[in-house]
Amino acid sequence: MSSNAHVPVLLGPVLEGLDIKQDGCYVDGTFGRGGHSGEILKRLNAKGRLIGIDRDPDAIASAPASLTDDPRFELVRGELAELQNIIGERKLTGKVDGLLLDLGVSSPQLDEARRGFSFLRDGPLDMRMDPDTGTPASDWLASVDERELIHVLRAYGEETFAKRIARAIVSTRAESPLRATLQLASLVEAAVPAKARAQKRHPATQTFQAIRIAVNDELGQLQAVLRQSITVLRKGGRLCVISFHSLEDRIVKRFIRDESREPEQYRGMPSMPDELRPKLTGIGKAIKANIDEIGANRRSRSARLRVAERT
Asked: How far is the C-alpha of 286 from the C-alpha of 5, rounded, in Å?
């Protein structure tokens, strides 16, 4: 397992951003291996409450007893888009003091070859966050239309050579199915120009990212949970979102911006309907990891944290 597996990214800024109240109610919407949750729980008193959510059964099974045995903590297997239902079932709608979302794939998921996320380890081409539901990447690649594949590679991976890679995938699958991670990684590497292969970053990085996002509907999940955060947070509650690539970060940035603005027709007016008032206030700018954290945890080098407060 990677040394980064249990290192919570941007921990200090997250704890500061959440503005933790000792008797508050908090939600870690992306529990992972519980790094952030463990530190949040340390700051709660006997009246505090923390709910962790994750759709990965490995994350649920690997949760440390120090958390699961704590009566203040509850771990729920579910998707981000189920946030409102999960909170509603516990009669906590509008009572949550802080919501944390740490997006993307975790280090343990990358380290497990059988999960199919890594282009450096050979394993089945799966990539599902929840292996009990949805479509494996191998099946998705076997049926996706070439135009749709090009769109996914460009939009979700920001891949310059999307057309060349998509054409290579379609050509290859006509002869034999793509079933293994290194098989796909080698195909992508051969499809891109030699100059691209010479770069430090592996040429399959963006392709794997794009396919993973598509297979798990990560952007749809993100957009849904952001909308639902407005409902579950109490007034003064904090939303903290860590993203690892520009596509996610733009979605978060635009959401906070849009929910912080007054409707154009009411700007400058002395009053407006309560339901049209801004729902959020952005807190500062995007926060990046410092040099020391990047040196200790390479995963943090692309992390961006944005914080907003429910108004």
From this structure: 24
